[in-house]
Design goal:
It is built from 14 helices and no strands. It is an all-alpha fold. Helix 6 packs antiparallel against helix 10. It starts with a helix and ends in a 9-residue tail after the last helix.
């Protein structure tokens, strides 16, 4: 239940970040939204951005070990099983990226999951060493690039960017066809961000999750009290300092060379904050709170896509077309409301079903058999 509860909680952080790609055309535009609420932007940047995809990635790596154990128990060949799973995940992710959200993470997971599949024989110790090396190398590189960027960057042409923002808003408010066209236009830039910023950190967290799964860290957390204590007393403060720097730059120096430096600092410190979140949540989930979040985590794939579908209906031509019209506080309230509904719907769904709709589909592709959908 702890794994599901962590995954369920992570859905809130993912929603709190992704919503802005729907709500405003200024998302990652390089200039600040004139209608922004700096306090809300600071909270999102401080506690959510660059943290929750790391948490999800860690849980993906941990779940990978559970898939290995399940295949071993059934005597099933693991490689073809997981290859089918990742192909299925890639197809779902590609459809998600084109139709709903160009910032889809599933295709990244599908591709990097193949790297993890190739490394599945690695020892937990070597997995941790490789993960730390990836984070340090990537963070150091982006920090150096940030320093150079601060010294050499020319000012952004705000007029040109504002015109591009207006085109994005018009596309999202136009027709379903213009929404898809805008997603396709933004995909190359998103791919660049994923490959050069997110991918190394994602793979590193896969490896940390893999090592944790091999050691059954979440199944037997009492055996690792020293780790949780260290993450809370040392990792969490360092992570918060890095997050504070990142948030300060995001709010006050949008589009400056300092943003590149902030990315480097975040790559180095955000995993510590994500680890601190896990340590704190494990204490919370020793209470009945785990039962609140676990159902959403059990159907996390369906909930992830559902979030984008709801946001698409609210903000784009798929429905109300409210992009650029809601205040930041209204968007924040919408996030809380959507997540609360998802918690309730997930619990209701699992009373009569064993899997979420997309979980069932992915399981069918993985196993090559039709699993039972409803509870007997």
């Amino acid at each position: 239940m702890r794994l599901d509860a962590l995954r369920g909680f992570a859905l809130f952080g993912i929603l709190a970040v992704n919503v802005w790609a729907f709500a405003t055309g200024y998302y990652v535009s390089g200039i600040a939204d004139p209608a922004r609420d700096p306090a809300i932007q600071w909270i999102v940047s401080m506690f959510f951005e660059t943290k929750f995809y790391l948490l999800f990635s860690f849980l993906f790596g941990y779940s990978f070990t559970l898939q290995m154990d399940a295949a071993a128990r059934r005597g099933a060949a693991f490689w073809p099983r997981m290859l089918r799973r990742h192909i299925g995940l890639a197809v779902i992710g590609a459809a998600h990226a084109v139709l709903l959200f160009h910032g889809d993470i599933l295709t990244t997971y599908a591709v990097l999951g193949l790297v993890l599949l190739a490394l599945r024989g690695i020892s937990p110790r070597r997995a941790v060493w490789l993960a730390v090396s990836l984070l340090l190398a990537s963070g150091a590189l982006w920090t150096l690039l940030g320093v150079l960027d601060m010294l050499t960057r020319t000012p952004i042409d705000a007029t040109m960017v504002s015109a591009r923002v207006a085109e994005t808003v018009a596309a999202y408010q136009g027709t379903p066809e213009t929404v898809v066209a805008e997603h396709l236009r933004q995909l190359p830039g998103t791919l660049e961000l994923v490959v050069f910023v997110q991918a190394p950190s994602t793979l590193a967290m896969f490896l940390l999750g893999f090592a944790a799964g091999k050691r059954q860290v979440l199944a037997e957390p009492w055996r690792y009290r020293a780790l949780w204590s260290w993450l809370l007393r040392a990792g969490l403060p360092v992570g918060l300092v890095g997050a504070g720097f990142y948030a300060h730059i995001a709010v006050n120096h949008t589009g400056s060379g300092a943003e590149t430096l902030a990315i480097g600092v975040s790559i180095l410190t955000a995993p510590l904050l994500a680890g601190g979140y896990i340590a704190a949540l494990l204490r919370l989930f020793d209470t009945r709170a785990a039962a609140v979040f676990a159902p959403a985590g059990r159907v996390a794939l369906s909930n992830y896509i559902l979030q984008s579908a709801i946001l698409g209906v609210v903000f784009t031509a798929y429905g109300l077309g409210l992009v650029g019209t809601l205040s930041y506080s209204a968007v924040a309230g919408l996030v809380v409301g959507i997540y609360a509904v998802q918690l309730a719907l997930s619990a209701l769904w699992l009373r009569s079903h064993r899997y979420g709709p997309l979980e069932w589909l992915l399981r069918t592709v993985t196993t090559g058999a039709w699993p039972v959908v409803t509870r007997q």
